[in-house]
């Protein structure tokens, strides 16, 4: 399993910037973050490891300003000879809950095509936007095609008990999981899972087993779809385990686990996928670890 380096820095988000270039360990290069919430956090989760800090300014989001800042940051990176790996919607909340999300996505896609056509377009999401039918449909469409949106979908828990600790959300666990399964059956997704301790305790054994079972089930969706449609077919494309690497305002509720724990969970998942009776699953879904 691959192990990657430095930690990104995105503190300028709390100062109201809409586009923030960061070195992203998960993108393995320069990522242009897009922040749809410059003056307040808007999220359906309240993760104890959340890195959103108190805000320092009150100006709301503006599509025009986002476009201007994106052009400027891409141009600056190009002048410095730095390759932009992706343009990534994340930052200060759940991007798909913003009323500007789809307009901003269209706009970023057009700017990407003109300025950095090789860069990926990425959405980091907790998946709760999928409970809205229009968002589900819109993301499904955006995720298809050769220059499609890459959807990095949070899946921090396999049991309701751990979900309650990790998400502290009013969104029912069962409903969210069934919607994620439905979405993975029609669109490609990257699964991203935060592994941390809560009040000093790592995920219990039953949680680790349940999460693994859920991912194997989701991988089965990919295998069945792949046999029909080929490249970048629906289902899990890759899996990212990541650890708590940066401070969060609610420290010390969530704390980092030893890198060895993350490696063990990744190795256990790999073995579980290899035991699958479905040959397409056994052919390996990339698993990456970012302690
Ligand atoms: S989903 Fe993201 S923005 Fe929302 S609370 Fe969790 S870490 Fe913070």
Properties at a glance:
single chain; 291 residues; alpha/beta; TIM Barrel; ten-stranded mixed sheet; 8 helices; 37% helix; disordered N terminus; binds iron/sulfur cluster
The low-confidence parts are 1-8
What is the string of helix and strand elements?
A: EEEHEHEHEHHEHEEHHE
The CATH H-level homologous superfamily: Aldolase class I
- Sheet/helix structural class: alpha/beta
Mean pLDDT rating: 89
Domain count:
1
The coarse silhouette is: globular
In short:
The chain is built from eight helices and ten strands. It is of the alpha/beta class.
How would you describe this protein?
The protein has 291 residues and is of the alpha/beta class. It has helices spanning 63-79, 101-115, 133-142, 160-167, 173-184, 205-229, 259-274, 279-282; strands spanning 2-3, 19-24, 29-35, 84-90, 120-125, 149-154, 188-198, 235-243, 254-256, 287-290. β3 (29-35), α1 and β4 form a beta-alpha-beta unit. The chain is built from 8 helices and 10 strands. The protein is globular. Mean pLDDT is 89; it is low at 1-8. The protein has one domain (2-290): Aldolase class I (TIM Barrel, Alpha-Beta Barrel), CATH 3.20.20. Strands 1, 2, 3, 4, 5, 6, 7, 8, 9 and 10 form a 10-stranded mixed β-sheet that branches.
């Amino acid at each position: 399993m691959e192990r990657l380096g430095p930690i990104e820095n995105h503190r300028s988000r709390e100062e109201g910037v809409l586009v923030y270039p960061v070195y992203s360990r998960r993108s393995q290069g320069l990522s242009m973050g897009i922040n749809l919430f410059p003056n307040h956090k808007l999220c359906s989760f309240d993760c104890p490891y959340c890195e959103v800090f108190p805000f320092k300014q009150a100006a709301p989001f503006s599509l025009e300003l986002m476009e201007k800042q994106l052009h400027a940051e891409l141009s600056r990176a190009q002048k410095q000879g730095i390759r932009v790996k992706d343009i990534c919607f994340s930052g200060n909340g759940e991007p798909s809950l913003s009323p500007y999300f789809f307009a901003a996505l269209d706009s970023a896609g057009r700017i990407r095509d003109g300025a950095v056509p090789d860069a990926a377009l990425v959405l980091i999401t907790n998946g709760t936007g999928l409970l809205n039918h229009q968002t589900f449909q819109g993301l499904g469409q955006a995720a298809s095609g050769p220059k499609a949106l890459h959807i990095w979908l949070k899946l921090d828990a396999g049991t309701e008990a751990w979900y309650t600790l990790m998400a502290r959300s009013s969104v029912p666990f069962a409903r969210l999981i069934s919607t994620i399964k439905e979405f993975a059956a029609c669109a490609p997704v990257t699964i991203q899972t935060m592994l941390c301790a809560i009040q000093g305790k790592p995920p219990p054994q039953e949680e680790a087993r349940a999460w693994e079972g859920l991912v194997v089930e989701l991988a089965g969706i990919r295998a069945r779809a792949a046999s029909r449609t080929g490249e970048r077919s629906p289902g899990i494309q890759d899996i990212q385990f990541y650890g708590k690497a940066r401070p969060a305002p609610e420290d010390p509720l969530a704390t980092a686990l030893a890198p060895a724990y993350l490696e063990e969970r990744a190795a256990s998942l790999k073995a579980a996928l290899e035991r699958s009776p479905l040959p397409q699953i056994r052919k390996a879904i990339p698993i990456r670890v970012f302690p």
